[in-house]
Amino acid sequence: MRTRIEDVARQAGVSPKTVSRVLNNEPNVREALRERTLAAVRALGYRPNPSARSLASNRSFLIALLYDNPSPYYVMEVQNGVLDACDEHRYSMMVRPLLSSAPDFLERVDALVSQFRPDGLVLTPPIADHAKLLALLQSRGTPHARISPKSRSRGVGATLDERSAAREMVRHLVTLGHRRIAHITGHHSHGASSWRLLGYRDGLEQAGLPFDPALVVEGLFSFDSGVVAARQLFALRRRPTAVFAGNDDTAAGVMWAAAEHGLSIPGDVSICGFDDTPLSRQVWPALTTVCQPSQDMGRIATQQLLRTIDNDAEGDMVSVPFTLQLRRSTGAAPLRARARKA
Asked: Where does the record place the HTH lacI-type domain (predicted)?
């Protein structure tokens, strides 16, 4: 016979209501009661009935992750983090790709919320900065968390100081002797693109290097856009000796274009990216990149969202640290470039 919540309560010596509060991770339960209840759950192999749980609480215990991002590696990392937090709190997760520039974008999100009734949404960039969607969710009181939004002054989610990270990457290239440093951005509507471009310019300014618009090309945070942008950069009369790509997928495209042009990495051109996705360790030479802990950010953003849902508390916008992963795709500037500087 299926173990019931009443069986768990009897085993633990508590009320069924206490069992329910423990399983829903509600606050104000004495730690001794919580541990005793969880021990009974494990001993009896109790598995709550999701339908009964939803009916009893008038909630779906479902979190929806929405994304519009061409990088499958980034999405996978974030998804794993969201799933970790959902599993921890006994929530289910649904993943929905959406085109935020589509005319029916708001209608599609509205239909999703109406049909599946998720208790909250996790929004990745650029959806995290979609002004009309944010206004709609705010007006309807739909809980949501944002990952890497342009505005970090309010809201719930997880963010990283991408401007400082980009500045540090440029500083690394400068210390290697590079002076012609190019940057491939993401789409201008993407918050990360804005922060990383600002950091690139900060790095140039700190090194006393002029900003050259010809060395900045817009990409789409995708492999193909990296190839196209790199071809444009490598066709310049004075091509760059280093390329800082907006993300790892773009950097992989730059590597492909470098091979196409017969350029060695890092002998002729140094290449670096952003995110530290698995791709950065799969290409050759291994990619120097900014380690953005995307999985941690997905987990933290979801935890803050569930904090507002489960505990009726105010979640935070949590800032996570970055590190530079220095690998073999960056090296000293070519001698001719250093001789020209001298």
From this structure: 3-57
